[in-house]
Amino acid sequence: MDNIREFSLSTEFIYLFIYLFIYSLTNLESYGSLYVCVRASIYSHDFMG
């Protein structure tokens, strides 16, 4: 059951990433802020991990 839970979490992350990507495509003027948010999340993930 733990494997299924991990898979669901990774799937939710993928869906979230796809949603953010599509959102950035439909709102090109906010692509810069989206990039900053993504980089911040990556840096925070590396810091936590």
UniProtKB/TrEMBL annotation:
The keyword Membrane applies. The chain crosses the membrane at residues 7-26. Keywords: Membrane, Transmembrane, Transmembrane helix. The keyword Membrane applies. It comes from the Eukaryota. This is Uncharacterized protein. It comes from Anguilla anguilla.
